Amino acid sequence: MKKIILVCALAVLMFACKSSSATSTKTDRKSQVAIKGDWVISAVTYPGSQYVKVNSFQLADSDCFVGSTWKFVSNNNKGSMALTKANCVSFSSPITWFVNNEGQFVLKVLDAGVKAKRVRDGYVLKLANQTETSFQLVDRIDVAGKMTDVVYQFQKAN
Q: What is the pLDDT of residue 4?
């Protein structure tokens, strides 16, 4: 009898400790609607940026993202992004995105013609300092064993 009670107690503990992923939580519609539209990254900042290069989203040097254009459509969580800075790799792609209730911005960069459900890799960033005309996405990266915040500053496009 004691073994049955012990097994039941362990089963309850295992299900009670279930972790939640960034993609399985509900969306924050208010934050998503506020992001709707055309945006430009006005700055990418992080400690030691003058000494350390960061390869953002496994696409290009973080400096190449300054001036990049982003379009967010909130009703279907799709959009696009384009890198166009001189002396940088030129890149454009459709994206899917959403903001969850924990303030996390979940992003997938897609290849043309590929459905989002087929893309396994994505990025989870923190949404911060959101206003009508600006917001920040904060990525946490490891630089020489120290966790560092990379801040992407978005400004509303005219």
A: 46
